[in-house]
Amino acid sequence: MRIISGLYKSRKIVAPKTLPVRPTTDMAKESLFNIINNLFYFDDITVLDLFAGTGNISYEFASRGTQNITCVDQDYGCVKFINQTAETFKMPISTIKSDVFKFLEKSNLQANIIFADPPYNFSEEQFAKIPELVFQNNLLLEDGILIIEHSKHTNLSNLNHYDYSKGYGGSVFSFFEIG
User: Fold this and answer.
1) Are the beta carbons of 8 and 68 closer than 8 angstroms?
2) Domain 26-177 carries which CATH code?
3) Are 146 and 162 in contact (CB under 8 A)?
4) CA-based angle 72:99:63, to the nearest 5?
5) What residue ranges do the domains of the chain occupy?
6) Which of 18, 28, 147, 154 is the most exposed place for a label (fewest CB within 10 A)?
7) What is the pLDDT along the chain (179 residues), one digit of tens a residue?
């Protein structure tokens, strides 16, 4: 994977093949950040990266100037890799090793952008639980967005707070808002 833009533009980050991950493709990531760039100033936001995996999305935020980034993943190897990478590049990323659903149930950490990249084979109920917990626990700041990455074979348009989706290849980003 590579960082698309910002301070660390074009840097390649190679994750161990043993991590249980499916990183967001560069094409999809670039398209996603074009959307986010039109909505937020990167240096003014707080980001929560759920099912963080390799930290791919968080590195992009950090490279673009975001100073408050929290990654949540239940896999020890993923958390360790994110910590090592963040330290190497001096990125302002903190990690929490936790089951994402348990984290969402107990957290009071609010963010402007909550990005979730759960396994594509999640059931409809598992996908639905993400926005349910985010909005139930008021984890989004005013004018914030929840973005869930999923397969093109999954449709989240029937969920509460759904706003719109954008597809890129086999990946789709669904956007959710408070209003």
Assistant:
1) no
2) 3.40.50.150
3) no
4) 10
5) 26-177
6) 18
7) 899 999 999 999 988 888 888 888 888 999 999 999 999 999 999 999 999 999 999 999 999 999 999 999 999 999 999 999 999 999 999 999 999 999 999 999 999 999 999 999 999 999 999 999 999 999 999 999 999 999 999 999 999 999 999 999 899 999 999 97
